[in-house]
Amino acid sequence: MLKLILFLSKIKRLNSYWILNVHILDVSRVRKPLIVCFTSMEDEEKEKADSIGIKSFSWNDFLYMGSQHPSELQTPQPSNICTIMYTSGTNGDPKGVILTHENATTTIFGVDLFMKQFEEKMTIDDVYLSFLPLAHILDRMIEEYFFRMGASVGFYHGDINAIQDDMIELKPTFLAGVPRVLERIYEGVLKGLEELNPRRRKIFDILYNHKLRWFEIRL
């Protein structure tokens, strides 16, 4: 007998989760659906889950269960569930979209084809700065592509207003984001230029125009 175990990022409202990953495990002796929470759970939350027929465990509880009952890793099939991605719920209740392993690998393959059209190829030395929500499908897609390529992924420290500090520390070669974030980065660059003395500003303008012409030639 197989039961579906959902790995959740939080357990605040039992009808509105951000579900990260879904795995099928053999827990035949368990008669209730299971929730494994990455964070700690309060007694009130556990009682609420139990009241609607859901058995809940903390991440540490789950690790202990695994250590006491080791089993062979089950290789997923293309049609098996890989992830349930939830919408933000801005137009109503969040809606779960079931994605299979075939969906995930096909998407990564598509990104690979897209990246191959550029003359400058991606290498294991490339670095991606992740600042979108971890449940964001675009961010997930890029992260998984970087993992496939053996490249590096860094995560911002949580304050989007200070993302320039993360960029200075990480020195990313790849960035994906929404227009507002890119505008904030652009505004930060302009502010930094205003603080330069005339000589350094002139040097920047020369180098910038040289790089711009280089891009135009390659395009």
Question: Would you write up a description of this structure?
Answer:
InterPro entries: AMP-dep_synth/lig_dom, ANL_N_sf. It comes from Lactuca virosa. By secondary structure, this protein is of the alpha/beta class. It is built from seven helices and nine strands, in the order βββαβαββαβαβαβαα. Strand 7, helix 4 (137-149) and strand 8 (152-155) form a beta-alpha-beta unit. The longest helix is centred in the last third of the chain and has 21 residues, at 198-218. It is elongated. Mean pLDDT is 77; it is low at 1-30.
**Helicity level:** 40-55%
Mean pLDDT: 77
How many β-strands, per DSSP? 9
Global structural class: alpha/beta
Shape: elongated
Residues in β-strands, percent: 15-25%
Q: Tell me the distance between the termini.
A: 57 Å
- Biggest sheet, spatial arrangement of strands: 2-1-3-4
Number of helices: 7
Query: N-to-C SSE series?
Result: EEEHEHEEHEHEHEHH
| Rg on CA atoms, Å | 23 Å
Low-confidence stretches: 1-30
Largest sheet: 4 strands, mixed
